[in-house]
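User: Predict the structure for this protein chain, please.
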Amino acid sequence: MDAGTAMDGGAVPMDSGVVGDVGVVDAPDAGCIPAVPSDEVCNSRDDDCDGRTDEGCDIVAVSTTVSQVFAIRENGSGVYWGAGRPVRPMDGVADAWEIASGTSPHICFASRAGQMRCRGDNQYSQLGIGRSGPGEAELEFAEVGLTGLLRISAGGSQTCAVTRPSNLWCWGNNDDGQIGDGTRVLRSSPTPVSVPAMTAVAIPAVGDHHACTVIGLDGELWCWGSNSSGQLGLDPSTTPSALLPTRIPGMTGVGSVCAADMHTCVTFRSGAVRCWGANDAGQLGVLPTGPGGYLPVDAGINGTAVGVSCSQASTCARMFDGSVQCWGYNDLGQAGNGTFDTPAPPGPVRGLSGEYAIQVVVGTWFACAVLDSGGVMCWGFNEDAQLGDESFEHRPGAVRVRGLR
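Assistant: Here is the predicted structure, written as structure tokens:
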């Protein structure tokens, strides 16, 4: 949702279908000795001696920071990779159902009990735990003062959440009004600031300095924060920023939204993708590159899109048929089209043929897709091993994350 990275489905978190994993069924072994503890630990063995292997181990959602990927399994446990290291367990995560992260970096998860915990950088109070400052960080997950969580999202140095019945809250950095409370005051209270006058809220898409969300059954789009490049969908000459959520003209029937550094994209219920804001690297899907603008343009995808994710100057759409199309900046292979030619027009990601993506998340110069088989494939920048293929080689096509079983 990187972060900044806005999430596929807005908003995924997270535009993702969860496919039940019943595990690989084996003939029960009469001589099987249960492990201690006897839970499945995702190691291709029947740890609990029930004749099934790795049940509950499917990855159902991921989120990214600059150099890492964080993932949750169907059983609520977490793993992560990158920062120079392969897949490993995420301590302190046992009952997660949604995950979100910002590029600051910080990471949050929502528990099945409707509570929220965060850890990481807290210079701008993005953890929502009531304090902040230079060098401030949490190495362990800390409780956020919210309950009844429905969805969470993060980006840059701010975080948002939707709670029952349908209330939107944001906190953290607010220098461009990206909290949406009518001020530019940093918010650090453990009871995060409620964005006013909004009901029937979908998951928000949180960018570096702006945010958007889909409202109501009509699929209206509301945005707030910085509008320096027209990323709110408003004329920046008259509205350089919006300190309160503002309805974007002409935007109805929106299915999902992503917010990046200086551009925004939406999918419509019709399956079309439209984008606006900066286009210096083709991130709007329009070539040749140029300054872009606040008026929406068609991204030129081929097919029907059901989700969109964007970060920095790259964008990817998840398609109805389970494929993924990406475009924009591609010097590190982040468009996944098999080349390092940049900018890249909209096109399919290589290596995903025969796979069905249930979520796509664009990180900082790389992207990952969660598959209905329970695995993950990533492409692009790999200097910190964030692609999870146990190498440091940039990949212009999708490679499978190793060590998830």
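The domain at 59-400 is CATH 2.130.10.30 (Methylamine Dehydrogenase; Chain H).
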